[in-house]
Amino acid sequence: MGYYLLIDFGSTFTKLTAVDLDKGEIVATASHFTTVATDIRDGYRNALIALYNQLGREIKFTRTIGCSSASGGLKMAAIGLVQELTVEAARRVCLGAGAKVDLVFAHHLTKRDLQAITDGKIDIILLAGGADGGNTESAIFNATRLGEAKIKIPIVFAGNKSCQDEIEAIFQRYGMNGHICENVMPKINVLNIKSAREKIREIFLKQIIEAKGIKKIEAEIDQVILPTPEAVLQAAELLSRGYLDEKGLGDIVLTDIGGATTDMYSICNATNRSDVIFHGLDEPFAKRTVEGDLGMRYSAPGIIKSLTKEEIIKLNQAKNIDIEREVDYRYRHVDMVPTNPHDYHVDQLLAEMCVYKAMQRHVGRIEEVLTPMGIVYNQFGKDLSAANYVIGTGGVLIKSHDPMGILHQTTNIKRIPGELRPLNPGYLLDEDYILAAMGLLSQTEPLLALRLMKRHLKPL
Amino acid sequence: MKAIVIGVIGADVHAVGNKIIEYTLANAGYNVVNIGVLSSQEDFINAAIETDAKLILVSSLYGHGELDCRGMREKCIEAGIGDILLYVGGNIVVGKQDFTEVKERFLQMGFNRVYPPGTPIEKALGDIKTDLGE
Fold this sequence. Notes:
Oligomer: heterodimer
Shape of chain B: globular
């Protein structure tokens, strides 16, 4: 069995977790700045030295695998036909594959849209449109547009099956980097994630990490196997479902507050109630949303943008700060680390706002409708009210003096009627930063990964 | 296979007729896209765009059909499917109104066919075959 080394190449830090398979323990963790701009191997080697120093000796690993969100992670554009249907389906597939969806387009692509794709340094495009047997015109039009614009980045076609042949011909005609897979929405409101997600992962591993200079690391480790957010999603799903006789935690919510994004994960069915009528596109059991405008540093200005002038004044008075100045400073100094009580206080506040808003966008809602047949309930999005646990990960939570205060923001503190936020969850903190590593470990050792998560997540 | 979008519009939860319509049209060889009860105009229209449907068949059993259907043709035009056939049927208005007038009002609203209470779906099926050309 021996030792496994699990590596998370993050945008800022390369984090190493060493696991002893025989004893079933995490034996050491270490990290170093990610050095993808020069040579990703430097940061890795330094982290490895730190790890060996902790252990007091060098060990030989039987398996070394990694996940990566370095160099901006995986940036995708999602294209579909109707906003609420194939566009949303495409977006959810990208997010579930661990991508950041920077661009989203509905209906016909315009020249401006194509320019945005070129300017946005997109890694992969997911092209959808039409249920199977339905609209073919939109996908064919958009594929042709992408071809005419000489876009060479990988394009995954996951739209109407009826026009696969035409799309393939367009890919060939324009010499495009095209890939065909199953429709993300084969029928109205039916979400089909798997095929497109696998294709995205395959392209990520074969082409994207090469293009980003991450592939070099494979001279020293076995393989980079996943984008980091997908590793986290898989860890969370395992933690929720359990494995064999080892019970999971049931319905869970997980939040990861970073410098540039706030990610929200929920692992549960859309609803467990029989007295509601569910509307809209299927919700994935393991769902991830990413808020690119909510973050602690790069995206801190997004928090301000979501507030009105009045709200800013009220906030400044209540908290005795100048929020605009604080945010601006953090945006200009993204490597800022809080050192005094005031900085901690402001970071805490920003993190709370990120989590509150990210959950507002992630969670479903319920509406009462009066009908001649009595009251009926319409539900849109996921019902998280029965979540057993809310789990927090990410630097700001781990360093916070009051992580509970941040995680508490996932619940319905403002008592907004209809929001299906967690009602009475327990709180856990990923203080050893192991979730991504456990997602990696779960590929081959799910039982051990599950046990380690249950052991290391700290109840608050 | 030609696609037909069916569903029950507005705050209406009558599900039985909806299932009978789905069964009958599917047996007749159509790709039936059933969006179910409590559906909004937008739900019908979005489904029709994605499935390239040629016909939307709206059911309304609870008497508020006139309010629920108003403006639907205009929304279809805005959404780029202005030519789609719109059928409506059920108890589409309140009380015992003269159906000739009711029908005229719905035709004015841009519906192509309007069915009175108690119409068997087989009757509509005949019209569908005529209108969709088979």
